[in-house]
Amino acid sequence: MATPATIRNVFDANYLGMVRVIRAALPLLRKQGRGHILGVSSGLGITSLPIVGFYSATKVGSGGDARGAGAGGQSLRYQGHAG
Fold it and tell me: Fewest CB atoms within 10 A around its CB: which of 7, 16, 20, 29?
C-alpha cells in the first residue's frame, strides 16, 4: 500500500505539475494568439487497478483540468485522446 507521502508526490507530479505548466504557458499562448499544449495521460485514467487507484485519479483529474480549470476558466479549444 502506498504511503500518504507517495500519494502526495504522485498528485504533485501528475496533476499539479500539469496545472503549473498550463498556467505558465497560457499568457504567452494568448499573446501569440495560438499555440499547443501537449498533455500525456494514461489508460489508467479510464480504468483503474486496485493498488494504484490514486494514480488513476491523477490522470482523470489531468484530463478534466486541461479542458477547464487549468486554463483559468478560459474557453480554449481542447483536443484530447486517452489510451
Answer: 20
